[in-house]
Request: fold
Amino acid sequence: MKINLRKTQLAARYALWLALFFFISVPALAFDAIATIARRVADRLCDVADFAVAHGRMLREQLR
Reply:
């Protein structure tokens, strides 16, 4: 049984490219998910801050 070295090298090259793509794309997807969650938290905090400012203005107007 003769092993074709050219096909083996080609398969190894494809496997390396696939592994490289996997190790680059998976952390990128995880970072994107973390960034999306952080953006949602920041939006929620901004909403809370806006509410606090508006409520503070309302209370200040009531005290006058």
Remarks:
- The CA atoms of residues 3 and 9 lie 11 Å apart.
- DSSP finds one helix and no strands in the chain.
- The mean pLDDT is 88.
- The two ends are 96 Å apart (CA to CA).
